[in-house]
Amino acid sequence: MKLRNSKVITQRRSASATDGVVEEVIAQKLADITTILHTSNVEKSRLHDYILSTVERSLFKIALKRSNNVKGTAAAYLGINRNTFQKKMVKLGIDDPKG
After folding, report:
1. Of residues 1 and 92, more confidently modeled
2. CA distance 89 to 62
3. Based on the domain organization, do 30 and 53 belong to the same domain?
């Protein structure tokens, strides 16, 4: 039993280390992107909404590509329901790859 528990602990540490690296890479890229996009206008910034929709649109396109444009498989790849996937495709302005 001890061996099994130590394997689980090792897997958690490995995932945690990977999460930290991924978060660091994303933070560095986002810092660059926000520098490019930021404006010093007095009006309310839409930077947050813009970044979130851009990231989500990119994820959906990646999922569709990796699933050969099968929406159910793409939704499962992202860990969301197929109906949610379909609604968000429309909201994000992603064309239905199958027509």
Report:
1. 92
2. 13
3. no
Kindly report the average pLDDT of the chain as a whole number. 85
Question: Phi/psi of residue 91, each to 5°?
Answer: -60, -40
Q: Domain range holding 29?
A: 1-38
Environment class of residue 93 by beta-carbon count within 10 Å: exposed (0-12), middle (13-18) or buried (19+)?
A: exposed
pLDDT at res. 93: 94
φ, ψ dihedrals at 98, nearest 5°: -100, 5
Q: What is the domain-level CATH number for residue 79? A: 1.10.10.60
Find the DSSP H helices in the chain.
2-37, 47-66, 71-78, 82-92
The model's confidence at residue 18, banded by pLDDT at 50, 70 and 90, is confident
Task: Round to whole Å and give the CA distance between 82 and 72.
Answer: 5
